Amino acid sequence: MASKFLTATWKNLVMANYIVDPALLAPYLPSKTELDLYNGNAYVSLVGFMFMNTRVLGFKIPFHVNFEEVNLRFYVRYNDNGTWKRGTVFIKEIVPKFAISFIANTVYHEKYDTKRMKHCTTETAEEINLSYQWKHKNKWNRMEASAEKPSQAMVSGSEEEFIAEHYWGYSKYNEATTFEYNVQHPAWKIFPVKSYLIDCDFKSLYGDSFSKLNGAKPNSVFVAEGSDISVLKKRNV
Predict the structure, then answer these.
(1) What are the tens digits of pLDDT across the range 78-96?
(2) Where are the domains of the chain?
(3) How far apart are CA 32 and CA 24, in angstroms?
(4) In DSSP terms, which residues pair with 165 in a beta bridge?
(5) Is the peptide bond before 22 cis (omega within 30 degrees of 0)?
(6) Where does 4-232 sit in CATH, by number?
(7) Cα–Cα distance measured from residue 141 to residue 16, given in angstroms and rounded to the nearest whole number
(8) For residue 235, what are the β-bridge partners?
(9) Strand, helix or coil at 111?
(10) Are 129 and 183 in contact (CB under 8 A)?
(11) Which residue stretches of the chain are H helix?
């Protein structure tokens, strides 16, 4: 059993989900994995959330305990000796802390980028309002959502369950080498979204191939409550 590399609490995840042409994701697909589809469709998700109480190998890194992250990701599966593992591949993960980017890129061969970020959370007994912002080329990108409380369990077989229930991470080291790591957490509850705003320059952040997402309406947006998580050490598959 792999030991824990990182523990934290992921909190208040805003998840905007887009149906895309599978060909768009082919250059990012790690060896030995294939796209995980929902109702025959390939998805990418823009996800903003808070990292809280972060520990690396059991230790807190000063000034790197609580911070924002925004990532663009898609979904794959890997056949491990007859058992299908459903996982996530990150196209880019944005954080405000250079040390986090350095560790993740060096150890896990992920695609972290360091940018100025900020967030805002307000809550009442009936509602939660979330905002995540990140600065790129002198422009503040943002994703925001207002959702109803209390949280509720995801419906079995729903799009929300498909998006959230991926417990493995896969990263492409080169054309032949893929790294795998397990992300452990309980099933999340979700807050039904009342309204949202996505202002993201996908083309500038992620390249010309993602330009069609600029101004596109996501297929769905939901807010996940989050939980404590553990990221186990990687292995080569």
Answers:
(1) 999 999 999 999 999 999 9
(2) 4-232
(3) 18
(4) none
(5) no
(6) 2.40.400.10
(7) 14
(8) 180
(9) coil
(10) no
(11) 22-25, 98-107, 159-164, 202-206
